[in-house]
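Bumping with the actual sequence this time:
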Amino acid sequence: MKTKIRIHDGIVGAIILTSVVLGLAINPQWLYIAGVIGALMTSSTFTGFCPVYFVLNKVIPTPSAAE
């Protein structure tokens, strides 16, 4: 489980950092991506749905207790 958390944090952090760098260097409209990611992270607190975890669970399935 710790591996998925670290991968999730790395993906989300890279997207936000890239958005901020592009927003400062190229065009401020890139900052909308950071805003959408922030809103998605906030909504996932209440809904329990996170698209990154959804994809990670498909790619790296969690072993069941029966195995």
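The tokens above came from a reply further down the thread. Residues 55 and 61 are 10 Å apart (CA to CA).
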